[in-house]
């Protein structure tokens, strides 16, 4: 009997997701893990969020491209390498063929018409705002992929974005110039005439564009998300992205050759449409690579079906206590306060699950943020004067207000009285325990149970 598509899907799902990777030999575990990452990325693409954000970035890019290039052109001109901007743009639009050459000419013409004296102070401010808004939209898209809800502070965004905009082009074109100088050096030319060095050098020359693209994508995946990204995970996403980038360029170039019908239908609008399609593919590939890097670093998010993870009420209380314990330990030992990423890694929790707990503790007046880069969490008041029960109350009562709280339901009902008795009993049991005792291990049994509780939370 022939299996139905649903039955085939169920069989494949069990084959991919049922085995425990830890029990498999490495030669089987690695391909299976790669297959699970590919499954999760395709699932996210089908969900539509990645494509939606890629389309949003296309719109923002169209508005910000000329101002961005104008700022880069001004910086490069100061270093005398502004003439390399046009070849770089031509290389990016090479898959578009003749249309790419035409678009490059028009963009460069727009950039050359941008003059500070004509724009004035308000125009320059709007120009920089447009560029910064593009960078902010890119960061938000990457943060969404990495499940990061915290944004960089305004001062940090301003300094980081300007560093990328002003210094980035100089470093990129300097690296390209150094590479070209090395390849044209007399020693290299002599080596090229000797075999097998000539064949090896030719291979390196063909491989160099791929290596530069992979290196650029690796840096993007490390620095753009507002979280700590491991180099290995960023490199994994960058390698796949680099291959997809080159392959899509070849495929898009083949599509352009056969796109005469679109030119006949849309006339002069065809160039704009093709340009937008290429931008969309570029941003989508970049976001796919970010998603691969995320799942490589956080395999706990891998699952056959996308599901919104959340902490149970019991686990939320335990995580809150562990957070206050870690923050208190750092405070009393004189170490720097914990960052959100550091706490998430220490507890073995994704940042998107830990952030609501930290927010609840801040609203409850138990934690405060200090510093700008990175932001660290410190005790909001003396721990020896803060009962442990307040931590549990802060997590349990987070989100309540004057219009949504237990008192508006049935305060005199048997259920309300039962919960009040349970709450009073918990308060009496923890009456003599404060947060300093939790942090330094003074409470009987606390020090020995913390490690096991922390392992259960992870």
Automatic annotation (TrEMBL):
Annotated membrane topology: Multi-pass membrane protein
Parts forming coiled coils: none
NADP as UniProt keyword: no
Database matches in InterPro entries: Virul_fac_BrkB, WH-like_DNA-bd_sf, WH_DNA-bd_sf
Region ranges (Disordered): 397-420
SUPFAM superfamilies: Winged helix' DNA-binding domain (SSF46785)
Keyword terms of this UniProt record: Cell membrane, Membrane, Transmembrane, Transmembrane helix
GO CC, alphabetical: plasma membrane
Localization of this protein: Cell membrane
Membrane-crossing residue ranges in chain numbering: 57-76, 116-135, 161-183, 203-223, 235-257, 269-295
Record's keyword annotation contains Cell membrane: yes
Superkingdom to which the source organism belongs: Bacteria
NCBIfam families per the UniProt record, alphabetical: yihY_not_rbn
Protein name: tRNA-processing RNAse BN
Annotated source species: Thioalbus denitrificans
């Amino acid at each position: 009997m022939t299996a139905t598509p649903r039955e085939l899907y169920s069989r494949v799902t069990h084959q991919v997701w049922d085995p425990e990777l830890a029990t498999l030999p490495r030669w089987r575990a690695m391909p299976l893990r790669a297959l699970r990452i590919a499954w999760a990325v395709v699932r996210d693409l089908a969900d539509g969020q990645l494509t939606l954000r890629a389309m949003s970035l296309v719109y923002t890019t169209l508005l910000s491209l000329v101002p961005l290039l104008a700022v880069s052109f001004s910086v490069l001109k100061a270093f005398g390498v502004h003439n390399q901007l046009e070849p770089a743009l031509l290389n990016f639009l090479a898959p578009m063929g003749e249309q790419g050459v035409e678009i490059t000419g028009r963009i460069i013409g727009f950039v050359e018409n941008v003059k500070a004296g004509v724009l004035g102070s308000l125009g320059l401010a709007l120009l920089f705002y447009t560029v910064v808004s593009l960078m902010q939209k890119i960061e938000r898209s990457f943060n969404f992929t990495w499940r990061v809800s915290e944004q960089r502070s305004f001062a940090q965004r301003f300094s980081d974005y300007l560093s990328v905009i002003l210094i980035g082009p100089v470093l990129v074109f300097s690296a390209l110039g150094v590479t070209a100088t090395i390849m044209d050096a007399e020693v290299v030319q002599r080596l090229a005439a000797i075999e097998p060095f000539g064949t090896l050098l030719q291979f390196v020359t063909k491989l160099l564009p791929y290596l530069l693209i992979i290196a650029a994508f690796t840096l993007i995946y490390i620095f753009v998300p507002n979280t700590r990204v491991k180099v290995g995970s960023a490199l994994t996403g960058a390698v796949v992205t680099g291959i997809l980038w080159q392959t899509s360029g070849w495929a898009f170039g083949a599509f352009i050759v056969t796109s005469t019908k679109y030119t006949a239908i849309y006339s002069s609008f065809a160039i704009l449409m093709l340009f937008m399609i290429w931008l969309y593919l570029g941003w989508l590939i970049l976001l796919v690579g970010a998603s691969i890097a995320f799942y490589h670093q956080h395999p706990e998010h891998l699952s056959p079906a996308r599901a919104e993870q959340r902490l149970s009420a019991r686990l939320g209380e335990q995580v809150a206590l562990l957070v206050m314990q870690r923050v208190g330990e750092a405070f009393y030992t004189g170490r720097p306060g914990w960052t959100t990423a550091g706490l998430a890694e220490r507890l073995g929790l994704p940042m998107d699950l830990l952030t609501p707990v930290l927010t609840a503790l801040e609203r409850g007046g138990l934690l405060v943020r200090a510093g700008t880069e990175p932001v660290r969490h410190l005790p909001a008041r003396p721990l020896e004067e803060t009962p442990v029960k307040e931590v549990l109350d802060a997590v349990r009562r987070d989100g309540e207000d004057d219009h949504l709280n237990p008192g508006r339901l049935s305060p005199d009902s048997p259920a309300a009285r039962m919960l009040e008795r349970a709450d009073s009993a918990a308060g009496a049991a923890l009456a003599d325990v404060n947060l300093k005792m939790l942090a330094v291990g003074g409470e009987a049994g606390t020090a020995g149970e913390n490690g096991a509780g922390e392992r259960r939370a992870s």
